[in-house]
Amino acid sequence: MPELPEVEVTRRGLMPLLGAEVSEVIIRQPALRWPIPAQLPGLLQGQRLLGLSRRGKYIVADFEPGSLILHLGMSGRLCLLERDQPAEKHDHFDLHFKDGRVMRLRDPRRFGAVLWAGQQPEQHVLLKVLGPEPLDDSFTGEMLYQAIRTRSSPIKTVIMDSHLVVGVGNIYASESLFRAAIHPQTPARSLSLAQCQRLVAEIKATLQAALQAGGSSLRDFFGADGNPGYFQQTYFVYGRDGEACRQCGSAILNLRLGQRSTFYCPFCQPAN
């Protein structure tokens, strides 16, 4: 699934569309994770794209009548194309603009979303429950320390909880915990303030490094311009089970936490 860096890379790739006027809305397959609202053509035709922001793994596209919420799901992409590029089998939704460009949702597994959020997108049911952005100043080691005082679940599953902090998915949770030298099974409430401060710093550093590399291209992800990301080439642990740790040479191990594969180094991330 595309995580925060991949969604942010997608958003940035769509920024050239700001100010463009919608000429046509095409819904080819409305049956995504939630049905695409049938009234979108009437709402958006003739409207200019006023803003593009991101909240967690959601992209919010602002128009004068209200905002559109877009989610890439498990395998989706938002592509910036020219109008003469024909639609393919898994192309479900288009925004055509008067200047000839098209924003197209391509989603083979149809777990993505195109939803109407009206004038207050921050109050939409999917957005209002989200925790702070990990790259914002409000996400600090002290905040994390206080938030997990009563949580006995493994720290890896806790930092993937979008109610606590958004956008730290499976890849970047594993990578951040390695960088912070914290075993993924460590009960969250047992972390010290110093460990929380180190973990927050490494979450921020990992996400920033991924953004600079264009995100991670695993299976389906490409940016809006069709280019892949390269962060996967520098992973310390994710997907590297059985390979040598880049720091100590020990074999990277894989365990299941919360039904997700979790990768770690037993030497660099010793269990408590």
Structural features, described:
- This protein is of the alpha+beta class and 272 residues long.
- It has 2 domains: 4-123, MutM-like, N-terminal (N-terminal domain of MutM-like DNA repair proteins); 141-264, Helicase, Ruva Protein, domain 3.
- 21% of the residues lie in helices and 21% in strands.
- It contains 6 helices and 10 strands.
- The chain has helices spanning 4-14, 40-44, 141-147, 155-159, 170-179, 193-212; strands spanning 22-27, 51-55, 58-63, 66-71, 77-82, 91-97, 101-106, 113-118, 253-257, 260-264.
- It has a 4-stranded antiparallel sheet. The chain has a 4-stranded antiparallel sheet with strand order 2-3-4-8, covered by helices on one side.
- Strand 6 and strand 7 (101-106) form a beta hairpin.
- Helix 1 packs parallel to helix 6 and helix 5 (170-179) packs across helix 6 (193-212).
- The longest helix is centred in the last third of the chain and has 20 residues, at 193-212.
- The radius of gyration is 20 Å and the shape is elongated.
- The protein starts with a helix and ends in an 8-residue tail after the last strand.
- 41% of the residues are buried.
- Main sheet, how many strands, which sense, barrel? 4 strands, antiparallel
Mean pLDDT: 91
Order of strands, main sheet, comes to: 1-6-7-5
CATH class of the largest domain: Mainly Alpha
